[in-house]
Amino acid sequence: MTQEATYLPIALRLDDARALVVGGGQVAGNKLRLLLERCPDITVCGVLSDPEILQAVETGRIRHDTRPLDLTLIRTLLPDMRLVFAATEDEDFNREVAAEARKAGVNICVVDDPAPSTFITPAIIDRTPVQIAISTNGAAPVLARRLRTQIEALLPDGLSRLARFMQAQRGWIRQAQPDTQIRRRAWENFVDGIGAECALRGEDEAARASLEATLKGVPREGEVWLVGAGPGDPDLLTLAALRLMQNADTVLYDQLVPAAIMDRVRRDAERVFVGKKRSNHSLPQDGINEELIRRAKAGQRVLRLKGGDPFIFGRGGEEMEALVDAGITVRVIPGITAASGCGAAAGIPLTHRDCAQSCVFVTGHARADGTLNLDWPSLAKKGQTLAIYMGLAPMADLCAQLQAHGLPPDWPAAVIEHGTRHDQRVHVATLATLPALILERRVASPALTLVGEVVTHRRSIHHQET
Questions:
Q1: Are strands 130-134 and 123-127 parallel, antiparallel or unpaired?
Q2: What does pTM read for this prediction?
Q3: Which residues are catalytic?
Q4: Which end of the chain is more exposed for a tag (fewer CB within 10 A), N or C?
């Protein structure tokens, strides 16, 4: 099996460099277009037929080496080049050029042939000085171009003006405020506020006034953000959650937050795992509260990232109380709770006009003595749906108690394992058969249990049917 190539996205400086384009047709012209506004010294070699290349040569923007195109010429030109595009119609010759470039230690891109190349060109959104590159490592160029179109539609027209304005202010801001953390917060507040809107429109004086006011008004005290990360699928994060994930100095996260969501956190933010598994807490709740308070008092913006919603069986209420009592500023960002996310992903409605006029959220987390302290008569009713969080371990007791208090053994139930994620599994059973089924299939947390006739209305959507 051939090893998959890996690439590191970088921005390569070309204003002090020379570049070589081998070939003179349309494909070479496409690559020349990438270089013209970025590299001051471009040489093209080969027979020219592309109109853009011909025009660039006639106007003196690029140099055409008219010597015969062969490997001798390539070897002569390579030592002065920072990068080379091999773009002739001869695939074998392109690969020979690549081999020579590799020997010379020069970056080489063979057009439409990533195997011999040392770099590939991504799909680019150009709002100079802002440039956004989208790459699929050469696996799906059409997908990269489609993503470029979608992202480009989200970007404001004045993005270039905003970036140049911010660049022009960096010098005086550095002198006015030597604290790096405070400067970063001021910039983030500026970008999120009216000042950035002024700069986008080219109203630099108003933007400067807003930036000065923002710099003076940056809070030096820390704060804590209690943020719901949703049920597991990163696409279900809220816009507010994503923005705070990019602004936090420190992230305290738990067991229910998957790596795919942590990948959305700012790369240089400190990450502190405070996860909790059954009977295995890396940090007790009092310790988490103390850590949040300590970091906020040290001036940090602390993101407390929780699976689901922070106020639904997430102990967010306890954390909020401790923080407010300590005088810490708190923001709460709700997330999609597991019942909503898992039910939707599994094709099981939480309510249904025909059979469920209410939905009750219940925690299956047992007390210290192992017992479940629940109002069983109110739970063991028809005409409603039970959404049971953390119910795997006490499943046998849960099902037995519901039957003992009035629900029949054949009452529908389902467990959604790893709900909304790519490895989701849905296990449909009854109260009588569910405990044995989850043991047989080795169902693992996180998992949500739904009990009620809504389970019979389930329709398979796109996840694994079990």
A1: antiparallel
A2: 0.70
A3: 254, 276
A4: N
